[in-house]
Amino acid sequence: MEQEILINKKNYNILVIGAGHVGLVTAACFAELGHNVICVDNDRQKIKHLNKLKLPFYEPQLDRLVIKNFKKRLFFSSSLEKNIKEAEIIFIAVGTPPLPDGSADLTSIENIATIIASNLNSYKLIVEKSTVPVHTGKKIKETITKYKKNDLAFDVASNPEFLREGKAIYDFFNPDRIVIGVETKCAEKILKNIYAPFKAPIVVTNINTAELIKHASNSFLATKISFINAISKICDLCGANVKKVADALGLDKRIGKSFLDAGVGYGGFCFPKDLEAFIYISKKLGYDFALLKEVKRINEEQKLYFVEKIKEKLWVLKNKKIAILGLSFKPQTDDMRFAPSIDIIGAFLSEGSIIKAYDPKAIGQAKKIFSKKDNIYFATNPYDAVKNCDCLCLLTEWEEFKNLDFKKIKKLMNTALIADGRNFLDKEKLQKIGFDYIGLGV
Ligand code: UGA
């Protein structure tokens, strides 16, 4: 009966658990679609800030959606139990950080499953939104069944999110596909109702397959990046140009243009951790995913290769001043998690270099990562960063770095050397100004 009512609804009482990148974006976007959404997080400070409309991270357009829907259809709370009782659909969007062995830490998910079990007061659809290893849905179902104190029905589903940081709102409303992993017609119908306003194809499958699609997607994208980074090295060795290789490769529709930008490698909280988790779960299932181990190795090697190229030019790195432009793992975000800049700066610091760093958004996060004892100084603008430096290293392709006054920069620097870790700047223009230019495969 309860299920029948839910099947015929358009707008739902949705609970989103976790106010991280996936959770907060999902909550704000569902509210924008007209649902009544409560987003909970056990970090009380975060909820306190959200209730004052202070967002925990930078994501373009997110503030606009939160402000627009706040206290109309979007609410923030730290009390999970009460809100479970009022919810019809529960999206789990909590973190699944990597453990030392590479596996995903599912402690939070298990804990939430037990709390849902003891607060199950009506039929609910429980949806995994976080990236989780295959079989997590099965475990959530077993856990709720084990701990619930009544005969009430519930469904578990998997609905992986494919949004990119920095473009998350756009991606939410313009998905390439929507993946729904379900076990019952009721769960399928409810999720299809939620996604009815979208034009994207909906892939309906079982839970295991939906979970696997997410890991397979991220691993494939990371593979494309490592592939082109390996090609960039061959280009350096034989005098070819990786940008042209990538352009021509991408024109083949079977390959596609995206994710073929060579550079200092991928970072962020998704690819590195998801690859580790996928390698781990594959091994557990009986398959040695050697291809992904190599993808990971190439990614690590690329950062050191970049530092080596700079070392070749500067000879001794000790006491050399290095300007770092761009700290976040990619533009349009202040996220520093697994950013290539961390390892690259680390390599310079261990050689005794002095770092002057600038990023339009990520300095606050970077300050939490590097210790006060490190020889790293944060600049207020790019020109301040490059002053008296021996090398300018570009590590994140923020659009504003493209239009810097490089003639002025040349005058400010000690040595006119630019190492472009994203093959982003105009090499010929810089060489004309008089810069020595290092790229990756260009
Ligand atoms: C990635 C996926 O793209 C999303 O589809 C997915 O939902 C998300 O992970 C997730 O699992 O939550 P994200 O980590 O936000 O999104 O960032 P991407 O835009 O994919 O970039 C990842 C890294 O790859 C960045 O460090 C970027 O600089 C690097 N990259 C990307 C390259 O080095 N070359 C490229 O050609 C593309």
Description:
It is a single chain. The relative contact order is 0.09. The chain starts with a helix and ends with a strand. Helix content is 45%, strand content 14%. The chain contains 18 helices and 14 strands. The strands form three sheets. The protein has a six-stranded parallel β-sheet with strand order 3-2-1-4-5-6, with helices on both faces. A six-stranded parallel β-sheet has the order 11-10-9-12-13-14, with helices on both faces. A two-stranded parallel sheet has the order 7-8. It folds into two domains: 204 residues, NAD(P)-binding Rossmann-like Domain (Rossmann fold, 3-Layer(aba) Sandwich), CATH 3.40.50.720; 192 residues, NAD(P)-binding Rossmann-like Domain (Rossmann fold, 3-Layer(aba) Sandwich), CATH 3.40.50. Bound molecules: uridine-5'-diphosphate-glucuronic acid (UGA). The site of uridine-5'-diphosphate-glucuronic acid has 21 residues, from α10.
Strand order of the main beta sheet, please?
A: 3-2-1-4-5-6
In total, the number of domains comes to 2
User: Helical region count?
Assistant: 18
Which ligands are bound?
uridine-5'-diphosphate-glucuronic acid
Q: Provide the β-strand percentage band.
A: 5-15%
CATH topology of the largest domain: Rossmann fold
Q: What is the annotated CATH architecture of the largest domain?
A: 3-Layer(aba) Sandwich
Low-confidence stretches: none
Q: What name goes with the CATH superfamily of the largest domain?
A: NAD(P)-binding Rossmann-like Domain
Quick one: biggest sheet? 6 strands, parallel
Overall 3D geometry?
A: elongated
Look at the helices and sheets and give the structural class: alpha/beta
| CATH secondary-structure class of the largest domain | Alpha Beta
